[in-house]
Amino acid sequence: MTDITASEPKPRRRVNLHVLGPVLALVALIILGASLNSNFLSYGNVTNVLARSAFIGIIAVGMTFVITAGGIDLSVGSMAAFVAGVMILSLNALIPSMGIGVPLIATGMVIALATGIAAGFLNGFLISKIRIEAFIVTLGSMGIYRSLVTWLADGGTLSLNFDARSFYRPVYYDGLLGIAWPIIVFAVVAILGELAMRHTAFGRHCAALGANEQVAKYSAIKVERLRLMTYVILGLLVGVATIMYVPRLGSASASTGVLWELEAIAAVIIGGTVLKGGFGRVWGTVIGVLILSLIDNILNLASIVSPYLNGAIQGVIVILAVVLQRESKSAD
Question: Which CATH architecture has domain 43-331?
Fold first, then answer.
């Protein structure tokens, strides 16, 4: 008797470019950068790229949850500038009473986190409770936060006290075992974010909310509270990113955080998170952040195009990433 099952062809495994695409792009960029400039893979350049990408990376992790739940936030760059301005003004005001030391810096960090949480809560409240479109709310708050920091700086720049900045500088420039603190914080945030997205009810509920809000409601998910929490978490991570950013320059102005929202959203989309919600992956966002940082670094090292066009290139990448997402859906 012939074994029919033995003669049947085995199904071929399809390569999921939606998953492997960002990884392959990252590998290709590393090879390209190394071939164009011998200093590309040097310890100094790699550390610089990772440290400078940490700010966007930390924010992008929070943005992943917002987008996965079907939301968007266009205000994170302006929010970071506002948080930095509030933090600097608070530190300068507290120096006469607290002096310069660890308690002063710790207080400033708490103020930055509280300001970020409050800003995120405000966005989330208007979106989830008042039911205003996320695009409208965050577009409006983007202008509000940018105007507020401009007003606080009287049209100029808010500068941290020189001695306080010197004491605060190690938070950005020092590290552990040769790894800068911003890189370490980014790695910790990314790991916690991936665990939350993959292995907690919160992450699963975010995906369910982004996929279909009505089904999520019928599944006993508290939709309003969940959506509010995604914006609060994003605001918290904006505060964390600002804490790591302020000691780098020791100042804040209307130009602080410009285009950070574009970079954060671009990293999330490049990493494979669906723009309309329903699916997200934090590890993909991390790869997206690295891809954007490496493109920027390669353009600067190789002088291929003007660095003033980096924003345009990032915008093109966002559009292409969304187009590829639509093509992959239609192919499925």
Answer: Orthogonal Bundle (1.10)
